[in-house]
Amino acid sequence: MQLFWHRQDLRLHDNRGLAAAADAAVDGDDEVLPVFVFDDDVLAHGSDRRVAFMLDALADLRAAYRERGSDLLVRHGDPSGVLPDLAFDYDAEAVHWNADYSGLAQERDEVVADALSIADVETHQHHDAVIHEPGDIRTNAGNPYQVYTYFWKKWRDRDKPDPFDAPAADRLADVAGDDLPAIDAFGFDAPEIDLPEAGHDAATARLDDFCVADVYDYAEGREYPAREGTARISQDFAYGTLGPREAYARTAEALAAAETDDDRESVEEFQSQLAWREFYTQVLYFNPEVVSENYDDYEHPIPWRNNEAEIAAWKAGETGYPIVDAGIRQLKCEGYVHNRVRMIVASFLTKDLLTDWRVGYRYFREHLVDHDTANDNGGWQWAASTGTDAQPYFRIFNPQTQGEKYDPDADYVTAYVPELADVPAGKIHDWPDLDAAERADLAPNYPDPIVDHGERREAAIEAFEAARGEK
Q1: Distance (Å, rounded) from C-alpha 122 to C-alpha 189?
Q2: Between 28 and 147, where is the model more confident?
Q3: pTM score, whole prediction
Q4: Which terminal residue of the chain, N or C, has fewer Cβ atoms less than 10 Å from its own Cβ?
Q5: Residue 6, beta-bridge partner list
Q6: CA-based angle 233:239:245, to the nearest 5?
Q7: One-character DSSP codes across 366-378
Q8: What 3-state DSSP class applies to 138?
Q9: What is the Cβ-side half-sphere exposure of residue 434, based on CA atoms within 13 angstroms?
Q10: What distances in angstroms separate CA 137 from CA 2, 152, 212, 255, 280, one per listed residue?
Q11: What is the percentage of the chain residues whose pLDDT exceeds 70?
């Protein structure tokens, strides 16, 4: 018997570790037993929204196994104890799993491997969540890349493996598992938002719909939050309901069908976003401390303000900067934020409010359905000018000009900030510059700006220059 331990790879298709376990089962004329373990150490970092989506994805995965005459065994406990016990109960000779790249996950997997070794059970770890495993793409000097552009050029030019087939039904163990637990069994509440449909079929349907048309406008369309210009598959990557090789293969088909240079440029721009995921995964793998520490050390500590009233206004979506508030409100009511707006919101918190990026990272982790440690940490440190290949500290987004450029008709803002629904777009973009009387007349229930961007921009530059030892 080969045990396969599912984690953040909740699919049968294009699952490298599962395919390897099935191959081993063929060689040994035995079967694969799929397992998922609810680990309290992992759940401690969860949220209502993410745990609910995970349970939906597990339900879809279990149904896929049951369609093949098998089932997903579900346990709750410490994997280092649960997996050796299961291996004993089912006389398993090996346990397979796909690598997870956070420091917490690496430490857990070492403990699990040691426990299984003591139980005389083989362990096999596979690289599945990325197309090119961490460390496979390096500088000419042999070091992990710190600059994305050079990483992307090598990533783009590397041959890509084909997606892995789902295991044949006769390779799966004929077992019956228990029902999945309810969310309150883990101390979480059912979220009060509509979650995206979970599972492999839903993920591939989203990607297929995107690749039919929107992918050919992606280079431009992805920048405008009021458009449906993105694939909306980030949660599918986060929980592994979509495989990276499968996703790349679909984009390769779209690239082959492109009719113009602009079309090809847009598809390649989308592919570069797949590379960004792997770049940040590599950063996390080689620098697990970045989850809580600055990647780029300054000569002196950054003098974060961390003003509680300003942070509270940011979290409430009541800063008086419309596109910032729209982004926070989208986060809270959908568990998702458009990527352009994520950058605007993060820049405002870390530069205008001079608030430690860890405050924003933790708030997003709590509310995002698609939270991914590597990507979210990389994005927040990019905005805070503390990360690898980060935004230079002196380049600070102006939320007014960002809104005017990327939401010119204020369609995005008014969708999430109803207090401004009857305000002309030009006035919305000029909101911080209007006098208090005009603001009160136009939208009496929407707040005045809590800070002056120009003043705070200069203060942020001075703070970072002091941290760099330039003053």
Answers
A1: 38
A2: 147
A3: 0.96
A4: C
A5: 36
A6: 65
A7: HH-TT--HHHHHH
A8: strand
A9: 24
A10: 31, 9, 31, 23, 13
A11: 99
